[in-house]
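**User:** Hello, beginner here. Are you able to go through the protein record under this note? It all follows right here:
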Amino acid sequence: MLNLTNLKHAGSGNFFLIAGPCAIEGEQMAFDIAGRVNEICTRLQIPYIFKGSYRKANRSKKSSFTGIGDEKALDILKRVGTHYDIPTTTDIHTDEEAALAAAYVDILQIPAFLCRQSSLLAAAAQTGKVVNIKKGQFLSPEAMQFAAEKVREEGNPNVILTERGAMFGYQDLIVDYRGIPVMQSFGAPVVLDCTHSLQQPNQSTGVTGGRPALIGVVARAGVAVGVDGLFIETHPVPAEAKSDGANMLPLDQLEALLEQLVRIRAAIR
């Protein structure tokens, strides 16, 4: 299990959950989502980590939403973690952002497009925080051992690897579940990103599409395979979300899905 002192239910035998909105849109929204997910996870004894991007750097169009301001969003992340006594995570994009974000969150997430950036991985590792590396859509699972090594070579053993689908043509992604045990063999917990794996990028509108109706299918298969953690972006009204609404799970559907997943986990243990 992860080296996080504030991760509850770590001994429950359940998968851990990284969940929250794609981006921090405001204080009330962040607290509402974190509070509801924390409530569900407490009842089901699922170790829970709150996720929210403080800045969206990878956008299809220049006019797309990028954030409410770095310091403001990071402060919200920190206060959510303190209020609910749960770990928090956000993604970083440049070497300089590593130390900045590390002052507010427990886990630094490396975006898939940047998983080969050696200096970024080193900067994240040097903060001493847990580093979650999302597998590039263009990489084999076997190649992720080298990303993990870059973090460990800085003296930081706290690495997570996340599967988020592989490009299938120009506008679709697929999940190869064989990659989960492959990446687990590198000695790191492996997470399945159940929402970004269903993205449909490169749309002519300049806005990424998705297939959220299949989130449950991807999640159930991942738990059945034995994944260590799940990553699910969720929002009260995905259609109104300022980022990635097309592939987020409606918040009111999360509880029933997690109940199913806990039963699957118990069945395979």
User: Anything to note?
Assistant: DSSP finds eight helices and 13 strands in the chain. The helical segments are 27-44, 70-84, 95-102, 118-126, 144-152, 179-184, 215-225, 254-268.
